[in-house]
Design brief:
two-stranded antiparallel ribbon
């Protein structure tokens, strides 16, 4: 699994940043920082699976998402989208 850009489409690339760059204990990920019209914010990451990872998922493997945090747990979402497309609603 690899973090990829663009997270959504080419239009949002300016909102992306790389997190954990040069931190050997973490994989760097590309994060789009999104500010919505209602002033709420979100950090979105897109991952692309290898063919082997896709086979494992099709065979029933679970996807486990961990989120380091300090204090209360932040909400998370998991969505699917083809490259260059927005997630399905």
């Amino acid at each position: 699994m690899q973090s990829v850009s663009p997270v959504f489409t080419e239009a949002e690339i300016d909102s992306e940043e790389v997190i954990a760059l040069e931190q050997e204990e973490y994989y760097p990920i590309i994060v789009a920082r999104i500010l919505f019209q209602d002033e709420s914010r979100s950090s979105m990451v897109r991952f692309r699976f290898t063919d082997e990872e896709r086979r494992l998922i099709a065979d029933g493997a679970d996807l486990i998402i961990g989120q380091p945090h300090h204090g209360s747990m932040m909400p998370m979402s998991l969505q699917l989208a083809m490259p260059g497309e927005y997630p399905e609603a």
